[in-house]
Amino acid sequence: MRRDRNREKAPCSNATEVMQQEIWKEFPEDLFETVIARLPVAAIFRFRTVCRKWSSLLGSDSFSRQYSEAPHGLPWFYTITHENANNNVAMYDPSLKKWHHPSVPLAPTKIVIPVASVGGLVCLLDLSHRNFYICNPLMQSLKEIPSRSVQGWSRVAVGMVLNGRSSNDGYKVMWLGNDGTYEVYDSTKNTWSCPGVFPPSIKLPLALNFRSQPVAVGSTLYFMCAEPDGVLSYDVSNGIWRQFAIPLPLYLTDHTLAEFQGKVMLVGLLCKNAATCVCIWELQKMTLLWKEVDRMPNIWCLEFYGKHMKMTCLGNSGLLMLSLKAKRMNRLVTYNLLKREWQKVPDCMLPCSRKKQWIACGTAFDPCPSALA
């Protein structure tokens, strides 16, 4: 009886397999793009290795549109690590809690630091603060853009905004110096320009906080300033400057701006007596005051008690990566602004080394295979 039943089931099983092959053979290519655009980044890269046709599909304009419209997960972090006078690139995927170590094709003589990102692209600036590079860290592509026309070695704050929904519509890079000089690079024109005169109503020098990367809300960039404490904004689309004097919370150090769902946020260390804690604030639009919305769990803060802590924020949009350092202590943590969740980051180590890497600088970026510099 069992043999007869098995014989009866076998043809059905084979028929099902044939039917599946026929279905996939006629599967519309536009639906392939719709499905692939919603896969995790790691799965997309496995998809590329199937065949040349599928790999080339990821570079098509239609896939780029599909990817820009599809919902995606957490941003990644592009960081520069330092060990034995050597600079290396490391990327952190918070979804898998995994470090990646790509070989970005940069000239070995050039030392560059990530200063801004938008639409899957990262802006790199060399130590002369004059030469800019745009790269897609995921695809390891690199483009050098024209040097800024203003001569000098003065430090600058750099921000990026998109022209449209994705980087394929073009993007703009802006740099701003303490003396009020600034320029805007338009990728569609491949040129720098100074759209207007810096308003005389804003006192110079600006005393920019260069530890804080500018944040973008739509087409507006926000820069953190001191003396007086506050925020300076510039709308790249219409050229309007605004300055807001906003007092900082008491006992605050190592503070930087962040952005979440169109809101301007602040993250920093509260240091009073021997106690230290990481806190998050939100800028209230009506009162123009900082309102505390969260702080690091007390059990984590106890580890910092009595230590001279320094903090660097490596990402400022949606998900923050915080580098917390003291003598004989180096901690990396992430903070999810949506879930209000703190998580520890695993140590960053090169594949052929067991030595822990020191994260020198970094920025958050949206992993996008179709982003074009």
UniProtKB/TrEMBL annotation:
Transmembrane segments: none annotated. It holds the Pfam family b-prop_At3g26010-like. The keyword Repeat applies. SMART domains: FBOX. It comes from the Eukaryota. Keywords: Repeat. Residues 21-67 form the F-box domain. This is F-box only protein 6. The keyword Repeat applies.
